[in-house]
């Protein structure tokens, strides 16, 4: 099978080189903060939420958290995948580019590779399962790609890809499991580091390490580095993140971020949906073995795939990724509603699993409370994309007629339907 070329070293210097190669083709997406969300994340969960869990009977965790959201929903094609696609093509020779490229994807990587191919003036063949959403199919075609449909299993998709390669000689650009993709995705971490440092420099109150206030004594601080590579608390500089948490599907983004941040003192965590076994990364770490098959219809449709082989070597290395946590469908929807209604940021369900972990996973929250002490943690949260539709959202957040009409301001609090000269 013809595929993108020789693997590059998975190290920070390679991520820096990747950023240099693609920066003219991607957006330097913004980092935003929300005091409201920080307050919610720093408030203990109600004890009844813990009933039936291993935390039942304990005092709910009370971490201090400041969140910095990297908004990859504002990236080209509406998701982070543009980074890996443009980097992969930047590593192809003119001869290889002339053959065109092929991949299999249900959405975001499909659009990203189609856009990158159009930018380079070459042909893109995209194999998409028939279950792909109409909006993502239309967007992929809109970037000029030839879409070929397949079944939904990886075996069915890969068989069609093989057929395309035999007929056209196109170069395979995999969705996530290749060093070129990993390094491209990791470039967002380099931007996030710099942006957070600048934000905190301009407004120290955004950080738990507010240098404008009198420093507080931290009982957790020691003179030694922790085993997983974080810097001792008293040596952390203003604007340096304690942790970054990112969605985990195939693992290209999480592996890239871990590669970019290795040795910096910033911990890296993954977040997954738990529905129907979508948390293969978390379960694989518990079993000390990569899980190769995932069959789930989680609403976080961008994460319905097992962790790739190359990515697993990074994610299973605790010196690079310090843990993976999983959240329910209800928690994902709750976090998504918060981002939409309070932050006014348009995201897809897959994008908010990291925030859901910060808000609702008692294990993660307990970790932050224990490790952060009374100062707390500054955490970078990756909002990975915003490729969904109003129709999909309306179905996800469907309410009964009474509550829907009240939300739409069609009836008053007592059910009345009179409206006259109402100021907007």
What is the element layout, followed by pairings?
Elements: H1 12-22, E1 31-32, H2 35-41, E2 65-71, H3 81-90, H4 94-98, E3 101-104, H5 108-120, E4 124-129, H6 134-142, E5 146-150, H7 154-168, E6 171-172, H8 179-202, E7 243-247, H9 252-261, E8 267-273, H10 280-287, H11 309-315, E9 323-327, H12 329-341, H13 353-360, H14 362-372, E10 377-383, H15 390-396, H16 401-407
Parallel strand pairs: 2-10, 3-4, 3-6, 4-5, 7-8, 7-10, 8-9
Antiparallel strand pairs: 1-2
Assign an overall shape: globular
Unreliable runs: 216-235
Number of separate strands = 10
What is the C-alpha radius of gyration, as a whole number of Å?
A: 22 Å
Estimate what percentage of residues fall within beta strands: 5-15%
Q: Enumerate how many helices there are, as a single number.
A: 16
Largest sheet: 6 strands, mixed
Helical fraction: 25-40%
Q: How are the strands of the biggest sheet laid out side by side?
A: 1-2-10-7-8-9
Order of helices and strands: HEHEHHEHEHEHEHEHEHHEHHHEHH
Kindly report the oligomeric state of this protein: single chain
Arithmetic mean of pLDDT = 90
Gap from first CA to last CA: 60 Å
Structural class: alpha/beta
Characterise the protein shown here.
The protein has 424 residues and is of the alpha/beta class. The protein has helices at 12-22, 35-41, 81-90, 94-98, 108-120, 134-142, 154-168, 179-202, 252-261, 280-287, 309-315, 329-341, 353-360, 362-372, 390-396, 401-407; strands at 31-32, 65-71, 101-104, 124-129, 146-150, 171-172, 243-247, 267-273, 323-327, 377-383. The longest helix has 24 residues, at 179-202. The chain starts with 11 loop residues before the first helix and ends in a 17-residue tail after the last helix. 47% of the residues are buried. Residues 216-235 have low confidence and may be disordered.
């Amino acid at each position: 099978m013809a595929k993108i070329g020789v693997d590059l070293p998975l190290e920070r210097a390679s991520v820096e080189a990747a950023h240099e190669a693609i920066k003219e083709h991607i957006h330097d997406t913004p980092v935003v903060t929300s005091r409201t969300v920080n307050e919610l994340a720093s408030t203990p969960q109600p004890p009844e939420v813990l009933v039936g869990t291993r935390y039942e009977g304990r005092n709910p965790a009370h971490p201090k958290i400041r969140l910095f959201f990297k908004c990859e929903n504002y990236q080209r094609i509406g998701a982070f995948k543009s980074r890996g696609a443009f980097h992969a093509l930047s590593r192809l020779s003119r001869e290889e580019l002339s053959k065109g490229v092929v991949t299999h994807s249900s959405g975001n990587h499909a659009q990203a590779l189609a856009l990158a191919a159009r930018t380079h003036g070459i042909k893109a063949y995209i194999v998409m399962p028939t279950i792909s959403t109409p909006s993502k199919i239309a967007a992929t075609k809109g970037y000029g790609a030839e879409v070929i449909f397949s079944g939904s299993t990886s075996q069915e998709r890969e068989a069609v890809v093989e057929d395309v390669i035999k007929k056209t000689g196109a170069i395979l650009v995999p969705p996530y499991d290749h060093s070129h993709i990993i390094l491209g995705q990791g470039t967002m971490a380099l931007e996030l580091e710099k942006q957070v440092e600048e934000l905190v420099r301009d407004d120290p109150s955004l950080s738990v390490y507010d240098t404008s206030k009198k420093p507080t004594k931290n009982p957790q601080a020691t003179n030694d580095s922790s085993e997983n590579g974080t810097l001792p608390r008293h040596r952390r500089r203003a604007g340096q993140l304690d942790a970054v948490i990112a969605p985990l599907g195939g693992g290209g983004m999480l592996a890239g971020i871990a590669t970019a941040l290795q040795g910096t003192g910033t911990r890296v965590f993954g977040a997954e949906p738990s529905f129907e076994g979508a948390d293969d990364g978390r379960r694989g770490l518990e079993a000390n073995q990569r899980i190769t098959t995932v069959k789930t219809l989680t609403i976080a449709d961008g994460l319905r795939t097992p962790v790739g082989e190359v990515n697993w070597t990074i994610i299973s290395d605790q010196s690079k990724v310090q843990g993976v946590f999983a959240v329910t469908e209800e928690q994902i929807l709750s976090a998504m509603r918060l981002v939409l209604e309070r932050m006014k940021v348009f995201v897809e369900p897959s994008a908010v699993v990291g925030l859901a972990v910060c808000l609702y996973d008692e294990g993660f929250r307990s970790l932050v409370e224990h490790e952060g002490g009374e100062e707390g943690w500054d955490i970078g949260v990756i909002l990975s994309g915003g490729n969904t539709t109003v129709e999909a959202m309306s179905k996800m957040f469907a309410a009964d007629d009474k509550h829907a009409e009240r939300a739409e301001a069609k009836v008053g609090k007592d059910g009345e339907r009179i409206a006259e000269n109402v100021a907007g």
